[in-house]
Structures are given as structure tokens and as C-alpha cells.
Amino acid sequence: MVRIGVVGIGFMGRIHFLAAQRLRGAKVAAVCSRDPAKRAGDWTRTRGNFGPEPGRVDLTGVKVFADYAEMLADPDIDLVDVCTVTDQHAPLAIAALKAGKHVLVEKAIALTAADADAMLAAAKAAGKMLLVAHVLPFFPEFAFAAEAVRSGRYGKLLAADFTRVIAKPDWSSDIGDAAKTGGPAVDLHIHDTHFIGLLAGVPRAVFSAGTLEGDAVTYLTTSYLYGPGGPAVTCSSGAVAAAGRPFVHGYEIYLEKATLSYSSGGNPLTVFTADGKSFIPELPGGGDPIAAFADELQAAVDGVRSGKEPDLLSGTLARNALVMCHREIESVRTGGTVKI
């Protein structure tokens, strides 16, 4: 049984806690929060942009900590699940690794590549896993695309275009603070750079155009430059839509023998084949907003139990995604192509 300690009871901490109720071979053994109301089970102030309405949570049988160091000293915790704001990821993850715990940390891995490298080094020194909770590859439409591309079932990846657009988040003061999250070009867009890295690897360079609000890049359109023979990949992502515009993400992926098309704005995943036919594949999940997070956490638990790092949760893949975001931000600010 893998015993999980969740630190940070905000929106994502609540989602992870709910998802963990579905795990096989694992359970939430402890939670850590500085907020006495949350430690008492009042999670009504953990609202986000999806999922069930927040309310009271039964913490019977779950240890409750106000002090993070005390939770790390507990020998009955195997895996620390860091669900705090991004600027806290590096110190909390490194402390847990030094305490002999495996770590699952929410995306983005950190705010800077230097912090990400320090986290990876701490994991190596401790002989423990640093896993990063990039949930996108666990959503059915993206899991299908990843398998199709990586398996070569429809031939070589030729080109792809990704979209991810929201209105400015208003459900949390932290989520809107670029100093804490990196702003939309990191906190939101890193979903795309991670997935692009998973499908096509790290490009040679990027060229991005975008919009700025203060020091934060709020929206960008990027060409990922893989060089001759590489795929032609683009992405538009950011918090630029007018208030009330629903969140939308999706893709067009062009393979030698098929085109995959999906948009959460109303276009179900459709596979167009070279013979002129098309079909809508059956996907698991049934629209359950927690299912992908349960699958993500199960992958982490299975990795801890087997001793083998799940590739979808790779710390190196997450670190490279962060670097791509920062190179794109640099390209927006300078107006030039930036090497990676």
C-alpha cells in the first residue's frame, strides 16, 4: 500500500484528494495545510474551473498536519503529492526527497530551469522518484493521439497544430499572480509544450509572437522549429479570451496515413484516414472530470510500487517543457527566433 501525503489544499489539492479515492494499492494517509478550516475538513474555498462543487470533506482516518516538516518526519508516508502554487514546488519537493519520500509535484515542475535541475539532482541523490503531474496525456483524446503518434500506427508525424485558450482566471488570486505561477505562458501553455515534447521531442528553436500584460506573456502563437525533415508544429495558447468565453483546447495532427482532429469546443475526436473515410473512436472516461487525474495518480502509484518511472510523469520531460516555455517567452519579448 502506497501511503500518500497531500500538501496544499487548494483547488488542485482537492482534485487530487478526490481522485485518490479511486486508487488501487494506495490511499491518502495525510494532508498538510496552513489553514485551520481546511485542516478541519472545510474545503468550501477550493473552487476551480471544473469538477464537483467544493464543500466539507471527511478526513476520518487521515492524519492532518499544519507543519510540513512534521509530515515529512512521518514514516507512514511514502509519496508526497505537492499541490501548492508553483513558486513553492522546488523547496517543498527537495525537502521531501531529502526526507526519503518519493514526490509527485503538480505542473509546472518549477518556475525556473535552475530550480527544476535542483529538484532532479535531489531525486538522484536521494534515490527517489521525482514525478511531475502533467495530466493532459491522461485525458482520453490526448491519450489516443499520443498512442497513435508514438506507436507509428498511422505512419510518421508530419505536422500538428494545438490550441489552448481561456479567459483570465478569476477563481484564485494565486493563479493570476505571474510571480507565483509564471503567468499563462507557463502555467497554462506548459500543457502544450509538454505534450509536444512527448510527441516530437525538443525542437531546435522556437519563434513566437504574443501579447504582454505587465511582465507576463498572456498569449502566444509559436512555431516549433525541428529543422529539415522534422515535423511542422505550431501552437496558440493563452488567457486572452473575453470573460465568459468557455475554455477550449484541441488539435489537428497530420500523420502519413491519417489526420486526427479534436476540439473541446464541440468537435469530438475524429480520425480521417487515407482512404477518404473517417470514424469517431470510442474513448474511456465518459466525460468524468476526475478520471484523468485518477489515472495520473495511479500511474504515479504504480511507478512507486514497481520502481520504474512512468514516462508520462518524467521529471526530465517536465523540465524540458518548462525550458521551451521560457524560450518562447524570450521570443515574444525579442521578436526573434530563439534556440533551445
Task: Describe the structure in your own words.
It is a single chain. With 340 residues, the chain is of the alpha/beta class. The chain folds into 2 domains: 2-135 and 293-312, NAD(P)-binding Rossmann-like Domain (Rossmann fold, 3-Layer(aba) Sandwich), CATH 3.40.50; 137-284 and 321-339, Dihydrodipicolinate Reductase, domain 2 (2-Layer Sandwich), CATH 3.30.360.10. Helix content is 32%, strand content 28%. It is built from 11 helices and 15 strands. The chain has a 9-stranded mixed β-sheet. It has a 6-stranded parallel β-sheet with strand order 3-2-1-4-5-6, sandwiched between helices. α2 (36-39) links the parallel β2 and β3 (63-65). α5 runs antiparallel to α11 (315-334). The relative contact order is 0.16.
Q: Uncertain regions: pLDDT < 50 for 5+ in a row?
A: none
Assembly type: single chain
What's the domain count?
A: 2
Given the C-alpha coordinates, what overall shape results? globular
Termini separation (Å)? 41 Å
**CATH architectural designation of the largest domain:** 2-Layer Sandwich
Q: How would you classify the helix and strand content by structural class?
A: alpha/beta
Write the CATH fold name of the largest domain. Dihydrodipicolinate Reductase, domain 2
Q: How much of the polypeptide forms β-strand, as a percent range?
A: 25-35%
Question: Which sequence of strands runs across the widest sheet?
Answer: 14-13-12-11-7-10-9-8-15
DSSP summary: helix tally: 11
Helix content: 25-40%
Largest sheet geometry? 9 strands, mixed
Pattern of helices and strands: EHEHEHEHEHEHEHHHEEEEEEEHHE
Count of strand segments: 15
The rounded Rg comes to 20 Å
> What's the rounded overall pLDDT mean?
95
Looking at this structure, what is the CATH superfamily of the largest domain?
A: Dihydrodipicolinate Reductase, domain 2
Given this structure, which CATH class of the largest domain is correct? Alpha Beta
